[in-house]
Design brief:
By secondary structure, this protein is of the alpha/beta class. The protein has two domains: 149 residues, Rossmann fold (3-Layer(aba) Sandwich); 185 residues, Dehydroquinate synthase-like - alpha domain (Dehydroquinate synthase-like, alpha domain). It is 52% helix and 10% strand. The chain has 15 helices and eight strands. Strands 1-8-5-4-2-3 form a six-stranded parallel β-sheet, with helices on both faces. A two-stranded antiparallel sheet has the order 6-7. α4 links the parallel β4 and β5. The longest helix has 21 residues. It starts with 12 loop residues before the first strand and ends in a 5-residue tail after the last helix. It binds 1,4-dihydronicotinamide adenine dinucleotide (NAI), 1,3-dihydroxyacetonephosphate and zinc ion (ZN). 1,4-dihydronicotinamide adenine dinucleotide (NAI) binds next to α2, α4, β6, α6 and α11. Its main location: cytoplasm. Its cofactor is Zn(2+). One of its GO terms (biological process) is glycerophospholipid metabolic process.
């Protein structure tokens, strides 16, 4: 008997383009949302986008509440929940980088309220996804959450954000190559649940981004457009899979472990990019695609070495040899890397010297 079923949860409206920040109120109206919004933001994105969005609401006769969070913690999620209850709001709007959006996502999940995603940086593929990522105890990876009701991504704002945020978003997408390799391996070896549609979409997204790498340059709004479309497509792949598998394999485990053990963590996308160079080597050896990944990252100014991440060599080895413990997700790292092997892959790929 056929007993499979699937429930793919996606936003209803995805608005991307020049100056679309001023469409947030219209998007809310299109969604038939009533009452007050709570804007969830962090210090710089507050000035860049949240205050202008709040002014648009005021001009439309709606009184928005606003909360600024400083860090991605469950205390921040709690602050948002308490503010939402005290201010009697009806929906949330996450305005900022990945952390502000994830906090809005997690709080909206708890409050059983809808939320909108208004990214101010094209730095990660969680803008549209049904995943939320807030460190909890020793865990760092994302968990299932509500997808946004709508995404409003203003390419004018995204193009003006610091360039390294955009290169981090590109690297998060380039890492899809190795995430999908890990996923297929887990399917073959462990019968992991797998979606060919999600895997193909994720890989194709990385390919289109790499094919358009010459369009990705600082200050160009077209770059923000190309990268944002890729981030949306990658997030949709996660929603189709109902898992972060299409966009997160061993390279993400490596990055999550760096977040725990490195004295100063680099951007998420930059860390997963460097991880992807090494896990591509583990998959294919010398003749694999690790050089293509490294060159693609270098071509858009993303880091390709530990030094460029500002992380010392020994921390890289520690992360490589321990990160398989981060979550129950089978990858090319299997039950953990031997230290000698870790040193060899990191040295051969030029990640450490
Ligand atoms: N939920 C999901 O599916 C996913 C979640 N993530 C999570 O997203 C996070 C990474 O996101 P990031 O955006 O890299 O980090 P982030 O949210 O910490 O942002 C980095 C910095 O850029 C600043 N910023 C944002 N927009 C700016 C602008 N326009 N001008 C100046 N500064 C600006 C932020 O305030 C912050 O200080 C990680 O926690 C990661 O785990 C990443 C991928 C998928
Ligand atoms: O960063 C992500 C995809 O790019 C989410 O992956 P995780 O589930 O590993 O947090
Ligand atoms: Zn990621």
């Amino acid at each position: 008997m056929f007993e499979k079923s699937t429930w793919i949860r996606l936003p209803r409206n995805v608005v991307v383009g020049h100056g679309v920040r001023s469409s947030v109120v219209e998007v809310v109206d299109d969604l038939h949302l009533q009452g007050r919004p709570l804007l969830v933001t962090s210090p710089t994105p507050r000035q860049v986008a949240a205050e202008p969005v709040a002014a648009d609401f005021e001009a439309a006769g709606i009184d928005p509440a606003i909360v600024t969070i400083e860090s991605a913690t469950f205390d921040s999620v709690e602050t948002v929940i308490e503010t939402a209850e005290a201010e009697e709001v009806s929906y949330l709007i996450g305005v900022g980088g990945g952390k502000a959006i994830d906090i809005a996502k997690m709080a909206s999940d708890h409050l059983e309220m809808g939320f909108l995603s208004v990214p101010t940086a094209a730095s990660h593929d969680g803008v549209i996804s049904n995943r939320g990522s807030v460190p909890d105890g020793n865990t760092r990876h994302s968990v299932a959450a509500e997808p946004p009701l709508a995404v409003v991504a203003d390419t004018e704002i995204l193009a003006e954000a610091p360039w390294e945020l955009t290169t981090a978003g590109c690297a998060d997408i380039i890492s899809n190559y190795t995430a999908v390799m890990d996923w297929r391996l887990a399917k073959r070896l462990k019968n992991a649940e797998y979606s060919e549609y999600a895997a193909a979409l994720s890989e194709m997204t990385a390919e289109i981004l790499v094919d358009n790498a010459d369009l990705i340059r600082p200050g160009l709004e077209e770059s923000a457009w190309v990268v944002t479309k890729a981030l949306m497509s990658s997030g949709v792949a996660m929603s189709i899979a109902d898992s972060s598998r299409p966009a997160s394999g061993a390279e993400h485990l490596f990055s999550h472990q760096l977040d725990r053990i490195a004295p100063t963590a680099a951007l998420h996308g930059h860390q997963v990019g460097v991880g992807s160079i090494m896990t591509a080597y583990l998959h294919g050896g010398e003749r694999g695609i690790w050089r293509d990944i490294r060159d693609a990252l270098a071509s858009i100014d993303a880091p390709t070495t530990a030094a460029e991440l500002d992380i010392d060599d020994e921390t890289v080895i520690e992360a490589l040899t321990t990160c398989h413990e981060i979550r129950d997700r089978y990858t090319i790292l299997g039950d953990g890397m031997d230290e000698h092997a870790a040193r060899e892959v990191a040295t051969k790929t030029g990640v450490i010297s």
